[in-house]
Amino acid sequence: MTPPNDPRPRDGQAAPAARERIAGVDAARALAVFGMLTVHLGVGSLGLAGLLGQEAADTFHGLARGRSSALFAFLAGLSLALMTGRTRPLPGPDLRRPMARILVRAIVLALLGMFLDLLDAPVAVILAYYAGFFVLALPLLRLGPAALACTAAAIAVAGPQASFAIRSAMGGTGFRENSIGGITDLLLTGYYPAFTFMAFVVAGMAVGRLDLAATRVRIGMVCTGAGLALLGYGGSWLLLFPLGGVDRLASDVAASTWGTSDLDTAALEPMRDWVVEEMGNMHGQVPTDSPVWLLIASPHSGTSYEAIGAIGTSLLVLTACLFAAERARVLLYPLSAAGAMALTVYAGHIVVMAIGGMSFEDVAPFRWEAFVGTALVACTAWKLLLGRGPLERALGWLGDRGADLVPDRIGPVRQV
């Protein structure tokens, strides 16, 4: 029985505070969704960035690619921590109802993800992966921040190496016709493989177990985030360029392609240029023809360097949003409102893209601004007038019904 002076909820019910929105987290979630929307609509949709020149548009698009989906997964983990006790993980018996809610949400997200996939919009839908991440995270819900941080570090360091070895043994996996085709895609070969993305989820869970209102915690998040971003992106750059990793990679690819790496400078230079270009064209994991690919930190490369760097940027974005939400709450309200309805915005933009036959290859300046502006206005009005977003309300209701199926207490086994 829970002691009378223990502030934790009884019988697995969520504490009132656990259901309160954190405006800064919602704002960060909106930035994650808008970042993914940037990638889905393509460089040609950027009007304001495009006015500054193609280089500015490419830079904005490049900053969003990969990091936004990583931030989305990171915030998913943070939400799991908020749902299961915040700074004090719920004990085993009290976890039954929250776990039921999470499982129901996972099922609904998987079904919604499959539906969106059937619309054939040129988008790698993340929701089915998201559902899988929720299930994979269930055994970790009892852990505190230190254990979760160590687990995230282990996944970030060992996961990409293990994935490379397993995929090398598997050989070619063929072209993916859908965003996700099964458990192998979820774990290894998909656009958002768990061998990398669970590092973001678990890191988010670790942060969710901290007191996000504490200045000391926020300073630690900034310092840690900056250090991880420097280690991930800076370390990769150092190994690839000043220390010659790109040249080694070009030689390895030449050996794999042509059967020899003994090329003169004139022949090696085009291969080197191709390798540098190919670094930006990853789709969940790196090729297995050379282990040097594991040194890159490009978006969606699924390497340790990318995971470490993206966790760092996620920490920086979250901390900035937490500070901004406190100091400019009214100005940031539309962004927080959109973040509180992230699932509705995400699903809605895919439906609109499918109906309109839109693609990331389109040249349609200011389309991105139109999508984002519409989302901000519509979400602000909806939240002021109706509260929770439509998909969020449905997901919450279904989760609560699933939790209602779990008994508050499990009585002693009757002796016979």
Could you please describe the fold and organization of this structure?
This protein starts with 22 loop residues before the first helix and ends in a 12-residue tail after the last helix. It has 17 helices and no strands. 48% of the residues are buried. It is globular. Helix 1 (23-41) packs across helix 3 (54-64), helix 10 (215-240) runs antiparallel to helix 13 and helix 11 packs across helix 12. The protein has 416 residues and is an all-alpha fold. Helices cover 66% and strands 0% of the residues.
In short:
The protein has helices at 23-41, 47-51, 54-64, 67-83, 96-118, 127-137, 145-170, 183-189, 194-208, 215-240, 245-258, 265-278, 304-327, 329-340, 342-356, 367-386, 390-404. The chain is mainly α.
Features:
globular, 416 residues, disordered N terminus, single chain, 17 helices, disordered C terminus
